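Moderator note: this is an archived Q&A kept for reference. The question asked for a predicted structure of one protein chain; the sequence and the answer are reproduced below.
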Amino acid sequence: MINEYYILRDNEKHGPYSHTELMDMEVNATELVLSPLATDWQEAAELPELDEYFKSIGIYVPTQQNVANFGWRLLAFVIDYVIITIGLGVIAGIFVATGRLASSTISDDSLSSTSSAEGDFLFRLIFLLILISYNSAFEATKMQGSIGKFICRLVVVNANGERLSFGTALSRNLFKILSSFFFCIGYFAMLWSPMKQCWHDQRAKTYVVKKPK
């Protein structure tokens, strides 16, 4: 029968199952399945007939054909940068309007210069922490990526094509600090990586995938 699928679980062969029964069992992308159209065991994600099923539950197995290129990832970053910058601007405007920043104004010029430098460092630090938290939180949700990535139809997944845990997402975004060293060479590393991974992707074992239309 064309619907006779077998699945390997706990080192035991189970089946036969129909295509529908296989999906009802919530088969994992990396589980070995013997298709009636094949002569050898394959990972479930390799079966074309299960492709739509995995996409429907948010699993996008990374391949050299579907990983996002530099242009799409740069566009997503620019969108996120604008969103966060506008958000911080609005918050800062609210503080100024309520007079909470006015009380910290120092009239002495030398102290004012020092205060300005410290304020610039503090702003950069806050921006970095917000960017890390923002990306980590969104990557661990069903969106599987930031707002910028969502607009560009990009998702961040692990090697099995699954959604990241918050811990993995956080480590990925913390490793972006490493990618930023030496003129951001860690970001440009994706240009010669077979799977288009930046340094932080390689360290966290993650991939950025372009969702099909």
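Archived answer notes: The first strand starts at residue 5 and ends at 9.
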